[in-house]
Amino acid sequence: MSQRVWNVYLSGEIHSDWRERIVRGVRDSQLPIEFTSPITDHDASDMCGVEILGSEEKEFWRDRKGAGINAIRTSTLIRKADIVVVRFGEKYKQWNAAFDAGYAAALGKSLIVLHEQSNDHALKEVDAAASATARTPEQVATILSYVVS
Fold first, then answer.
1. Which CATH number is 21's domain given?
2. Which end of the chain is more exposed for a tag (fewer CB within 10 A), N or C?
3. Residue 75 lies in a domain
4. What is the mean pLDDT of residues 126-140?
5. Which among 84, 79, 71 is positioned nearest to 9, based on CA atoms?
6. Structure letter (DSSP) for residue 115
7. How far apart are CA 44 and CA 18, in angstroms?
8. Dihedral angle sign, alpha carbons of residues 87, 134, 128, 131
9. What is the span of the domain harbouring residue 94?
10. Neighbours of 71 (CB within 10 A)
């Protein structure tokens, strides 16, 4: 019998190496986990709609086209995930991350939230929906190691 492979979706902030740190921690433990994520190239993600479907004069419609195309990937991968990890960074407001956390919670997915203590108050409802709130990517890797082992 083959070992179960877990599917973990890594959502949220795209401006730091948090994903790589989690993957490295899991790979070092040789855990049966596959990772998926949104498109993490900011410009590619923002511009995919107009690159594929044609230009838009108004920014709203440019963003709407891109969001719709990106939602195909995001919603599919979150639905397929066993565990969803959502990272909230310090630099930008992460509305997409909050949406992904809510979507995962609505689907009954196991949710791990990752953010600094300074965001505790702002993210109290998201944290309440999560199974765990971690402060570092290494804590997330350790949670995954514990759950999967």
1. 3.40.50.450
2. N
3. no
4. 98
5. 84
6. -
7. 20
8. positive
9. 6-37+80-148
10. 14
CA distance 112 to 68: 25
Distance set, CA 80 to CA 32, 49, 74 (Å): 16, 24, 10
* Percentage with pLDDT > 90 across the chain: 87
Q: pLDDT of 134-146, one tens digit each?
A: 999 999 999 999 9
pLDDT digit string, tens, across residues 28-66: 888 999 999 999 998 999 999 999 999 999 999 999 999
Q: What is the pLDDT of residue 2?
A: 60
Q: pLDDT tier at 83 (50, 70, 90 boundaries)? A: very high
Is there a domain that residue 120 lies in? Answer: yes
The whole-angstrom separation of Cα 43 and Cα 64 is 15
Residue 140 lies in a domain: yes
Number of domains composing the chain:
1
pLDDT greater than 60 at residue 147: yes
CB 49 within 8 A of CB 66: yes
The answer as to whether 139 is a domain residue is: yes
